[in-house]
Amino acid sequence: MNKGRKVLVAGLLAASALVAPQAALAGPSTSVEARLDRLEAEVGSLRGEVSAAKAENEQLKAQAQQAEARAQAAEAQAADANKRLAALEAKPAAAPAPAAPADGFKSGTTTIKLGGYVKLLVASTRYSDGEVATNSLGRDFYLPQTIPTGGAPASRVTDFTAKQSRFWLNMDTTVSGHAVKGYLEFDFQTSPGTQGSQRTTNGYNPALRRAFMQVDRWTFGQDWSTFQYTGALPESTDYVGGAEGTTFVRQPLIRYSAPLGKGAALHVGVENPESGTANIGSPTLNENGDDRMPDFTARLALTGKRHELSLSGLVRQVRVENSGIAATTGGFGVSLGGKVFFNDAKTGDARFMVTYGHNASRYIGLNFAPDAVYVPATNSLESVNVMAVIGAVRMPLAPGVRANLMGSYQNVDYSDNLTLANISTFNKKAWSVAANLFYSPIKNVDLGIEYRHGERELVNGADGTTDRIEVAAKYSF
Known about the structure:
With 477 residues, the chain is α+β, with helices and mostly antiparallel strands. 19% of the residues lie in helices and 46% in strands. It has a 16-stranded antiparallel β-barrel with strand order 2-4-5-6-7-8-9-12-13-14-15-17-18-19-20-21. The longest helix is centred in the first third of the chain and has 59 residues, at 32-90. It is elongated, with a radius of gyration of 47 Å.
Protein backbone atom coordinates (compact mmCIF):
# COMPACT_ATOMS: atom_id res chain seq x y z
CA MET A 1 0.00 0.00 0.00
CA ASN A 2 1.40 3.42 -0.94
CA LYS A 3 2.07 6.11 1.66
CA GLY A 4 -0.89 8.30 0.62
CA ARG A 5 -3.37 5.53 1.23
CA LYS A 6 -1.84 4.86 4.66
CA VAL A 7 -2.13 8.56 5.61
CA LEU A 8 -5.77 8.54 4.47
CA VAL A 9 -6.54 5.50 6.59
CA ALA A 10 -4.73 7.05 9.56
CA GLY A 11 -6.86 10.14 9.26
CA LEU A 12 -10.00 8.06 9.22
CA LEU A 13 -8.87 6.22 12.34
CA ALA A 14 -8.13 9.43 14.09
CA ALA A 15 -11.53 10.76 13.23
CA SER A 16 -13.13 7.63 14.57
CA ALA A 17 -11.18 8.09 17.78
CA LEU A 18 -12.57 11.57 18.18
CA VAL A 19 -16.13 10.27 17.71
CA ALA A 20 -15.65 7.22 19.98
CA PRO A 21 -12.85 7.89 22.36
CA GLN A 22 -13.53 4.66 24.28
CA ALA A 23 -12.82 2.60 21.22
CA ALA A 24 -9.68 4.52 20.56
CA LEU A 25 -8.51 3.92 24.01
CA ALA A 26 -9.47 0.21 24.04
CA GLY A 27 -6.15 -1.06 22.81
CA PRO A 28 -3.47 1.38 23.62
CA SER A 29 -0.88 -1.31 22.87
CA THR A 30 -2.10 -1.88 19.26
CA SER A 31 -0.36 0.28 16.74
CA VAL A 32 -2.09 2.02 13.90
CA GLU A 33 0.28 0.31 11.43
CA ALA A 34 -0.80 -3.18 12.52
CA ARG A 35 -4.46 -2.39 12.11
CA LEU A 36 -3.78 -1.02 8.66
CA ASP A 37 -2.07 -4.28 7.64
CA ARG A 38 -4.98 -6.34 8.89
CA LEU A 39 -7.52 -4.24 7.00
CA GLU A 40 -5.38 -4.48 3.87
CA ALA A 41 -5.37 -8.30 4.14
CA GLU A 42 -9.15 -8.42 4.53
CA VAL A 43 -9.66 -6.15 1.53
CA GLY A 44 -7.31 -8.39 -0.55
CA SER A 45 -9.30 -11.45 0.46
CA LEU A 46 -12.53 -9.80 -0.57
CA ARG A 47 -10.99 -8.88 -3.93
CA GLY A 48 -9.96 -12.57 -4.50
CA GLU A 49 -13.45 -13.83 -3.74
CA VAL A 50 -14.93 -11.30 -6.13
CA SER A 51 -12.48 -12.42 -8.88
CA ALA A 52 -13.30 -16.11 -8.28
CA ALA A 53 -17.00 -15.37 -8.42
CA LYS A 54 -16.56 -13.57 -11.71
CA ALA A 55 -14.55 -16.50 -13.18
CA GLU A 56 -17.15 -19.02 -12.07
CA ASN A 57 -19.88 -16.90 -13.57
CA GLU A 58 -18.01 -16.82 -16.92
CA GLN A 59 -17.61 -20.62 -16.87
CA LEU A 60 -21.30 -21.20 -16.19
CA LYS A 61 -22.17 -18.81 -18.96
CA ALA A 62 -19.93 -20.74 -21.42
CA GLN A 63 -21.46 -24.08 -20.36
CA ALA A 64 -24.94 -22.68 -20.88
CA GLN A 65 -24.00 -21.55 -24.38
CA GLN A 66 -22.59 -25.03 -25.22
CA ALA A 67 -25.75 -26.74 -23.92
CA GLU A 68 -27.90 -24.48 -26.01
CA ALA A 69 -25.82 -25.27 -29.11
CA ARG A 70 -26.15 -29.03 -28.48
CA ALA A 71 -29.91 -28.68 -28.01
CA GLN A 72 -30.19 -26.86 -31.32
CA ALA A 73 -28.13 -29.59 -33.08
CA ALA A 74 -30.34 -32.33 -31.57
CA GLU A 75 -33.45 -30.55 -32.74
CA ALA A 76 -32.00 -30.34 -36.26
CA GLN A 77 -31.16 -34.10 -36.27
CA ALA A 78 -34.62 -35.00 -35.04
CA ALA A 79 -36.21 -32.92 -37.78
CA ASP A 80 -34.01 -34.64 -40.41
CA ALA A 81 -34.90 -38.10 -39.04
CA ASN A 82 -38.60 -37.25 -39.18
CA LYS A 83 -38.22 -36.23 -42.82
CA ARG A 84 -36.46 -39.55 -43.71
CA LEU A 85 -39.09 -41.58 -41.83
CA ALA A 86 -41.87 -39.80 -43.67
CA ALA A 87 -40.13 -40.53 -46.99
CA LEU A 88 -39.78 -44.26 -46.14
CA GLU A 89 -43.40 -44.52 -45.10
CA ALA A 90 -44.44 -42.97 -48.41
CA LYS A 91 -42.57 -45.74 -50.40
CA PRO A 92 -43.32 -49.53 -50.52
CA ALA A 93 -41.02 -51.69 -48.38
CA ALA A 94 -38.03 -53.05 -50.29
CA ALA A 95 -37.45 -56.84 -50.30
CA PRO A 96 -34.59 -57.92 -48.04
CA ALA A 97 -31.34 -58.79 -49.80
CA PRO A 98 -30.97 -62.58 -50.20
CA ALA A 99 -28.41 -64.18 -47.94
CA ALA A 100 -25.25 -65.38 -49.65
CA PRO A 101 -25.03 -69.19 -49.89
CA ALA A 102 -22.75 -70.95 -47.42
CA ASP A 103 -20.91 -72.43 -50.41
CA GLY A 104 -21.36 -72.42 -54.16
CA PHE A 105 -22.58 -69.36 -56.01
CA LYS A 106 -25.84 -67.76 -57.07
CA SER A 107 -27.34 -67.57 -60.57
CA GLY A 108 -30.57 -65.65 -60.15
CA THR A 109 -32.41 -67.44 -57.34
CA THR A 110 -30.57 -70.74 -57.92
CA THR A 111 -27.69 -71.86 -55.73
CA ILE A 112 -25.12 -73.78 -57.80
CA LYS A 113 -22.47 -75.98 -56.23
CA LEU A 114 -19.58 -77.72 -57.94
CA GLY A 115 -17.85 -80.82 -56.65
CA GLY A 116 -16.23 -84.13 -57.43
CA TYR A 117 -12.77 -85.59 -57.14
CA VAL A 118 -9.52 -86.21 -58.97
CA LYS A 119 -8.26 -89.77 -58.60
CA LEU A 120 -5.17 -91.64 -59.71
CA LEU A 121 -5.27 -95.45 -59.58
CA VAL A 122 -2.26 -97.72 -60.02
CA ALA A 123 -2.97 -101.45 -60.26
CA SER A 124 -0.77 -104.51 -60.57
CA THR A 125 -2.84 -107.56 -61.51
CA ARG A 126 -2.11 -111.26 -61.94
CA TYR A 127 -4.47 -113.52 -63.89
CA SER A 128 -4.07 -117.26 -63.38
CA ASP A 129 -5.51 -118.42 -66.72
CA GLY A 130 -4.89 -115.87 -69.44
CA GLU A 131 -4.89 -112.13 -70.01
CA VAL A 132 -7.54 -109.39 -70.12
CA ALA A 133 -7.44 -107.10 -73.14
CA THR A 134 -5.83 -103.71 -72.65
CA ASN A 135 -8.15 -100.67 -72.41
CA SER A 136 -11.03 -102.92 -71.32
CA LEU A 137 -13.16 -102.41 -68.19
CA GLY A 138 -11.65 -105.48 -66.52
CA ARG A 139 -8.26 -103.77 -66.53
CA ASP A 140 -9.64 -100.57 -64.98
CA PHE A 141 -11.51 -102.17 -62.07
CA TYR A 142 -12.48 -105.56 -60.67
CA LEU A 143 -15.11 -107.11 -62.94
CA PRO A 144 -15.45 -110.85 -62.20
CA GLN A 145 -17.00 -111.79 -65.55
CA THR A 146 -13.75 -110.76 -67.25
CA ILE A 147 -11.49 -113.10 -65.23
CA PRO A 148 -9.95 -115.52 -67.77
CA THR A 149 -10.68 -119.25 -67.37
CA GLY A 150 -9.63 -122.37 -69.20
CA GLY A 151 -5.95 -122.94 -68.49
CA ALA A 152 -4.18 -120.36 -70.63
CA PRO A 153 -0.76 -119.16 -69.40
CA ALA A 154 -0.84 -116.82 -66.41
CA SER A 155 -0.17 -113.14 -66.97
CA ARG A 156 0.70 -110.04 -64.96
CA VAL A 157 -0.07 -106.45 -66.00
CA THR A 158 0.34 -102.97 -64.52
CA ASP A 159 -1.98 -100.07 -65.30
CA PHE A 160 -2.12 -96.37 -64.36
CA THR A 161 -5.42 -94.55 -64.88
CA ALA A 162 -7.20 -91.32 -63.95
CA LYS A 163 -10.47 -92.27 -65.71
CA GLN A 164 -12.39 -92.49 -62.47
CA SER A 165 -11.97 -88.77 -61.77
CA ARG A 166 -15.45 -87.33 -61.30
CA PHE A 167 -17.26 -84.00 -61.56
CA TRP A 168 -20.74 -83.03 -60.39
CA LEU A 169 -22.96 -79.97 -60.55
CA ASN A 170 -25.73 -79.44 -57.97
CA MET A 171 -28.50 -76.84 -58.43
CA ASP A 172 -31.04 -75.81 -55.78
CA THR A 173 -33.82 -73.22 -55.84
CA THR A 174 -37.40 -72.52 -54.79
CA VAL A 175 -40.07 -71.78 -57.41
CA SER A 176 -43.55 -70.67 -56.31
CA GLY A 177 -43.07 -72.39 -52.99
CA HIS A 178 -41.78 -75.66 -54.53
CA ALA A 179 -38.30 -77.05 -53.86
CA VAL A 180 -36.59 -77.60 -57.22
CA LYS A 181 -33.22 -79.28 -57.55
CA GLY A 182 -31.02 -80.44 -60.38
CA TYR A 183 -27.99 -82.74 -60.45
CA LEU A 184 -25.47 -83.60 -63.18
CA GLU A 185 -22.53 -85.99 -62.73
CA PHE A 186 -20.01 -87.52 -65.07
CA ASP A 187 -16.64 -89.27 -65.10
CA PHE A 188 -14.42 -90.74 -67.83
CA GLN A 189 -14.60 -94.45 -66.94
CA THR A 190 -17.30 -96.01 -69.08
CA SER A 191 -17.57 -93.86 -72.20
CA PRO A 192 -18.09 -96.03 -75.29
CA GLY A 193 -16.79 -93.27 -77.56
CA THR A 194 -13.38 -92.81 -79.14
CA GLN A 195 -10.71 -93.29 -76.52
CA GLY A 196 -7.18 -91.95 -76.39
CA SER A 197 -4.14 -94.14 -76.69
CA GLN A 198 -2.14 -95.12 -73.60
CA ARG A 199 0.94 -94.68 -75.78
CA THR A 200 0.34 -90.96 -76.29
CA THR A 201 -2.36 -88.69 -74.86
CA ASN A 202 -4.48 -91.01 -72.64
CA GLY A 203 -7.51 -88.90 -73.55
CA TYR A 204 -10.93 -90.25 -72.57
CA ASN A 205 -14.44 -89.04 -73.25
CA PRO A 206 -16.79 -87.92 -70.48
CA ALA A 207 -19.41 -90.53 -69.51
CA LEU A 208 -22.78 -89.59 -68.07
CA ARG A 209 -23.36 -91.03 -64.62
CA ARG A 210 -26.40 -89.21 -63.23
CA ALA A 211 -28.58 -86.39 -64.53
CA PHE A 212 -31.90 -85.68 -62.82
CA MET A 213 -34.23 -83.00 -61.54
CA GLN A 214 -36.32 -83.05 -58.37
CA VAL A 215 -39.54 -81.17 -57.75
CA ASP A 216 -40.61 -81.60 -54.13
CA ARG A 217 -40.94 -85.39 -53.76
CA TRP A 218 -40.61 -86.27 -57.47
CA THR A 219 -37.42 -87.26 -59.28
CA PHE A 220 -37.13 -87.24 -63.07
CA GLY A 221 -33.96 -88.30 -64.89
CA GLN A 222 -31.06 -90.70 -64.54
CA ASP A 223 -30.08 -91.82 -61.05
CA TRP A 224 -29.23 -94.92 -59.06
CA SER A 225 -32.03 -97.44 -59.42
CA THR A 226 -34.60 -97.36 -56.63
CA PHE A 227 -33.86 -101.08 -56.25
CA GLN A 228 -30.28 -100.31 -55.17
CA TYR A 229 -29.09 -99.46 -51.65
CA THR A 230 -25.86 -97.54 -52.24
CA GLY A 231 -25.02 -97.50 -48.52
CA ALA A 232 -23.79 -101.09 -48.79
CA LEU A 233 -20.97 -100.19 -51.19
CA PRO A 234 -17.68 -100.48 -49.27
CA GLU A 235 -14.91 -97.89 -49.16
CA SER A 236 -12.47 -99.23 -51.71
CA THR A 237 -9.76 -98.15 -54.11
CA ASP A 238 -11.78 -100.08 -56.70
CA TYR A 239 -14.50 -98.49 -58.83
CA VAL A 240 -17.22 -100.70 -57.28
CA GLY A 241 -15.66 -102.85 -54.57
CA GLY A 242 -17.03 -106.40 -54.72
CA ALA A 243 -18.99 -106.17 -57.95
CA GLU A 244 -20.38 -109.74 -58.00
CA GLY A 245 -22.34 -109.33 -54.74
CA THR A 246 -24.00 -105.94 -55.13
CA THR A 247 -26.91 -104.44 -56.99
CA PHE A 248 -25.53 -101.76 -59.27
CA VAL A 249 -27.62 -99.90 -61.85
CA ARG A 250 -27.88 -96.26 -62.95
CA GLN A 251 -30.68 -95.53 -65.40
CA PRO A 252 -33.46 -93.09 -66.38
CA LEU A 253 -36.46 -93.24 -64.06
CA ILE A 254 -39.43 -91.48 -62.49
CA ARG A 255 -39.54 -91.79 -58.71
CA TYR A 256 -41.81 -90.58 -55.94
CA SER A 257 -40.46 -90.40 -52.39
CA ALA A 258 -42.80 -90.17 -49.39
CA PRO A 259 -41.78 -89.78 -45.73
CA LEU A 260 -43.68 -92.25 -43.52
CA GLY A 261 -42.61 -90.99 -40.12
CA LYS A 262 -39.51 -90.49 -38.05
CA GLY A 263 -36.60 -92.04 -39.94
CA ALA A 264 -38.80 -93.87 -42.48
CA ALA A 265 -39.36 -93.20 -46.18
CA LEU A 266 -40.89 -95.06 -49.11
CA HIS A 267 -39.53 -94.66 -52.65
CA VAL A 268 -41.54 -95.93 -55.63
CA GLY A 269 -40.12 -95.88 -59.14
CA VAL A 270 -40.93 -96.53 -62.79
CA GLU A 271 -37.64 -97.24 -64.56
CA ASN A 272 -36.10 -97.84 -67.95
CA PRO A 273 -36.59 -101.44 -69.15
CA GLU A 274 -33.81 -103.31 -70.88
CA SER A 275 -33.23 -107.03 -71.21
CA GLY A 276 -29.79 -108.59 -71.34
CA THR A 277 -30.39 -112.12 -72.55
CA ALA A 278 -28.16 -114.86 -73.93
CA ASN A 279 -28.85 -117.49 -76.57
CA ILE A 280 -28.26 -121.14 -75.79
CA GLY A 281 -24.69 -122.17 -76.60
CA SER A 282 -23.24 -118.63 -76.24
CA PRO A 283 -22.80 -116.62 -73.02
CA THR A 284 -22.59 -113.34 -74.94
CA LEU A 285 -25.19 -110.92 -73.63
CA ASN A 286 -27.61 -109.34 -76.09
CA GLU A 287 -29.05 -105.91 -75.32
CA ASN A 288 -32.28 -106.48 -77.18
CA GLY A 289 -34.08 -103.15 -77.03
CA ASP A 290 -37.42 -104.96 -77.45
CA ASP A 291 -38.91 -104.15 -74.05
CA ARG A 292 -42.31 -102.49 -73.78
CA MET A 293 -43.21 -102.51 -70.10
CA PRO A 294 -41.17 -100.36 -67.68
CA ASP A 295 -39.51 -101.91 -64.67
CA PHE A 296 -41.34 -101.19 -61.40
CA THR A 297 -39.29 -100.68 -58.24
CA ALA A 298 -39.88 -99.79 -54.61
CA ARG A 299 -37.64 -99.32 -51.58
CA LEU A 300 -38.44 -98.84 -47.89
CA ALA A 301 -35.68 -96.98 -46.04
CA LEU A 302 -35.38 -96.86 -42.25
CA THR A 303 -32.79 -94.63 -40.60
CA GLY A 304 -31.81 -94.35 -36.94
CA LYS A 305 -29.03 -92.83 -34.89
CA ARG A 306 -26.87 -95.96 -35.15
CA HIS A 307 -28.29 -97.82 -38.15
CA GLU A 308 -29.72 -97.82 -41.67
CA LEU A 309 -31.99 -100.48 -43.13
CA SER A 310 -33.22 -100.89 -46.70
CA LEU A 311 -35.75 -103.32 -48.17
CA SER A 312 -36.35 -103.10 -51.91
CA GLY A 313 -38.36 -104.92 -54.53
CA LEU A 314 -38.45 -105.18 -58.32
CA VAL A 315 -41.03 -106.42 -60.83
CA ARG A 316 -40.25 -106.52 -64.54
CA GLN A 317 -40.84 -108.11 -67.91
CA VAL A 318 -38.07 -109.64 -70.05
CA ARG A 319 -38.81 -109.56 -73.75
CA VAL A 320 -37.07 -110.46 -76.99
CA GLU A 321 -38.37 -110.22 -80.53
CA ASN A 322 -37.09 -111.93 -83.66
CA SER A 323 -38.65 -111.42 -87.10
CA GLY A 324 -41.74 -109.97 -85.48
CA ILE A 325 -42.20 -112.91 -83.11
CA ALA A 326 -41.81 -112.08 -79.43
CA ALA A 327 -40.95 -114.16 -76.38
CA THR A 328 -41.59 -112.81 -72.90
CA THR A 329 -41.20 -113.88 -69.30
CA GLY A 330 -41.62 -112.24 -65.93
CA GLY A 331 -38.95 -111.29 -63.45
CA PHE A 332 -38.62 -110.00 -59.91
CA GLY A 333 -36.04 -109.20 -57.29
CA VAL A 334 -35.82 -108.68 -53.53
CA SER A 335 -32.92 -107.01 -51.73
CA LEU A 336 -32.23 -106.40 -48.05
CA GLY A 337 -29.37 -104.13 -47.03
CA GLY A 338 -28.23 -102.27 -43.98
CA LYS A 339 -25.52 -100.54 -42.04
CA VAL A 340 -24.70 -100.46 -38.31
CA PHE A 341 -22.48 -97.67 -36.98
CA PHE A 342 -19.91 -98.40 -34.29
CA ASN A 343 -19.79 -94.84 -32.90
CA ASP A 344 -21.69 -91.55 -32.90
CA ALA A 345 -19.18 -90.02 -35.32
CA LYS A 346 -20.06 -92.79 -37.85
CA THR A 347 -16.40 -93.34 -38.68
CA GLY A 348 -16.75 -97.09 -38.27
CA ASP A 349 -19.51 -99.47 -39.40
CA ALA A 350 -20.56 -102.87 -40.66
CA ARG A 351 -22.59 -102.97 -43.87
CA PHE A 352 -24.26 -105.72 -45.89
CA MET A 353 -26.68 -106.51 -48.71
CA VAL A 354 -28.40 -109.76 -49.68
CA THR A 355 -30.19 -109.94 -53.03
CA TYR A 356 -32.24 -112.57 -54.82
CA GLY A 357 -33.22 -112.14 -58.45
CA HIS A 358 -35.42 -114.15 -60.79
CA ASN A 359 -34.75 -113.07 -64.37
CA ALA A 360 -33.32 -109.84 -62.96
CA SER A 361 -29.61 -110.38 -63.43
CA ARG A 362 -28.82 -107.03 -65.03
CA TYR A 363 -29.51 -105.41 -61.66
CA ILE A 364 -27.04 -107.68 -59.86
CA GLY A 365 -23.29 -107.92 -60.30
CA LEU A 366 -23.23 -105.73 -63.43
CA ASN A 367 -25.07 -108.45 -65.39
CA PHE A 368 -22.73 -111.26 -64.33
CA ALA A 369 -25.44 -113.66 -65.51
CA PRO A 370 -28.04 -113.20 -68.28
CA ASP A 371 -31.56 -112.06 -67.45
CA ALA A 372 -32.84 -115.16 -69.23
CA VAL A 373 -31.65 -117.68 -71.84
CA TYR A 374 -33.39 -117.61 -75.22
CA VAL A 375 -34.13 -120.90 -76.96
CA PRO A 376 -34.82 -120.28 -80.68
CA ALA A 377 -36.27 -123.72 -81.30
CA THR A 378 -39.14 -123.12 -78.90
CA ASN A 379 -39.11 -119.30 -79.05
CA SER A 380 -38.98 -119.25 -75.25
CA LEU A 381 -37.01 -117.63 -72.48
CA GLU A 382 -35.64 -119.95 -69.81
CA SER A 383 -35.27 -118.56 -66.30
CA VAL A 384 -32.07 -117.59 -64.48
CA ASN A 385 -32.00 -117.23 -60.69
CA VAL A 386 -29.29 -115.35 -58.85
CA MET A 387 -28.32 -115.09 -55.18
CA ALA A 388 -25.79 -112.40 -54.24
CA VAL A 389 -24.25 -111.23 -50.96
CA ILE A 390 -21.84 -108.47 -50.05
CA GLY A 391 -20.52 -107.42 -46.64
CA ALA A 392 -17.88 -105.03 -45.34
CA VAL A 393 -16.46 -103.68 -42.09
CA ARG A 394 -14.95 -100.22 -41.78
CA MET A 395 -12.68 -99.70 -38.75
CA PRO A 396 -11.14 -96.40 -37.59
CA LEU A 397 -7.56 -97.00 -36.40
CA ALA A 398 -6.34 -93.46 -35.67
CA PRO A 399 -7.26 -89.90 -36.68
CA GLY A 400 -7.39 -89.97 -40.48
CA VAL A 401 -6.58 -93.70 -40.66
CA ARG A 402 -9.07 -96.51 -41.28
CA ALA A 403 -9.13 -100.08 -42.59
CA ASN A 404 -11.78 -101.91 -44.61
CA LEU A 405 -12.42 -105.63 -44.94
CA MET A 406 -14.94 -106.87 -47.49
CA GLY A 407 -16.28 -110.01 -49.10
CA SER A 408 -18.62 -110.58 -52.04
CA TYR A 409 -20.33 -113.63 -53.58
CA GLN A 410 -22.79 -114.56 -56.36
CA ASN A 411 -24.24 -117.91 -57.39
CA VAL A 412 -26.31 -118.54 -60.53
CA ASP A 413 -28.91 -121.26 -61.10
CA TYR A 414 -30.22 -121.93 -64.59
CA SER A 415 -33.50 -123.52 -65.59
CA ASP A 416 -33.60 -127.31 -65.48
CA ASN A 417 -34.79 -127.21 -69.08
CA LEU A 418 -31.28 -126.17 -70.12
CA THR A 419 -28.70 -128.93 -70.59
CA LEU A 420 -25.03 -128.66 -69.75
CA ALA A 421 -24.24 -128.48 -73.46
CA ASN A 422 -26.55 -125.45 -73.78
CA ILE A 423 -24.86 -123.41 -71.03
CA SER A 424 -21.46 -124.99 -70.35
CA THR A 425 -19.51 -121.73 -70.79
CA PHE A 426 -21.98 -119.58 -68.88
CA ASN A 427 -21.00 -118.01 -65.55
CA LYS A 428 -21.88 -120.14 -62.53
CA LYS A 429 -20.41 -118.26 -59.58
CA ALA A 430 -17.85 -115.71 -58.48
CA TRP A 431 -16.47 -114.45 -55.20
CA SER A 432 -13.83 -112.08 -53.92
CA VAL A 433 -12.27 -110.82 -50.69
CA ALA A 434 -10.33 -107.61 -50.19
CA ALA A 435 -8.61 -105.57 -47.50
CA ASN A 436 -7.38 -102.00 -47.65
CA LEU A 437 -5.88 -99.22 -45.60
CA PHE A 438 -6.75 -95.54 -46.10
CA TYR A 439 -4.93 -92.50 -44.75
CA SER A 440 -6.10 -88.88 -45.01
CA PRO A 441 -3.06 -86.70 -44.25
CA ILE A 442 -5.07 -83.51 -44.79
CA LYS A 443 -8.74 -82.74 -45.29
CA ASN A 444 -10.23 -84.04 -48.59
CA VAL A 445 -7.11 -86.01 -49.53
CA ASP A 446 -7.23 -89.83 -49.34
CA LEU A 447 -4.35 -92.23 -49.93
CA GLY A 448 -5.19 -95.93 -50.09
CA ILE A 449 -3.66 -99.33 -50.73
CA GLU A 450 -5.74 -102.46 -51.33
CA TYR A 451 -5.28 -106.15 -52.01
CA ARG A 452 -8.03 -108.22 -53.67
CA HIS A 453 -8.37 -111.88 -54.56
CA GLY A 454 -11.21 -112.96 -56.85
CA GLU A 455 -12.37 -116.18 -58.50
CA ARG A 456 -14.76 -117.03 -61.31
CA GLU A 457 -16.22 -120.42 -62.19
CA LEU A 458 -18.20 -121.52 -65.25
CA VAL A 459 -21.02 -124.06 -65.41
CA ASN A 460 -18.62 -126.67 -66.86
CA GLY A 461 -16.25 -126.25 -63.91
CA ALA A 462 -13.55 -124.21 -65.62
CA ASP A 463 -12.29 -121.47 -63.37
CA GLY A 464 -9.75 -118.72 -63.02
CA THR A 465 -8.43 -116.38 -60.36
CA THR A 466 -7.08 -112.89 -60.12
CA ASP A 467 -4.93 -111.13 -57.54
CA ARG A 468 -4.65 -107.36 -57.61
CA ILE A 469 -2.77 -104.75 -55.61
CA GLU A 470 -4.01 -101.18 -56.03
CA VAL A 471 -2.71 -97.83 -54.85
CA ALA A 472 -5.02 -94.82 -55.08
CA ALA A 473 -4.65 -91.10 -54.43
CA LYS A 474 -7.80 -88.96 -54.42
CA TYR A 475 -8.54 -85.28 -53.85
CA SER A 476 -12.21 -84.45 -53.26
CA PHE A 477 -13.54 -80.95 -53.78
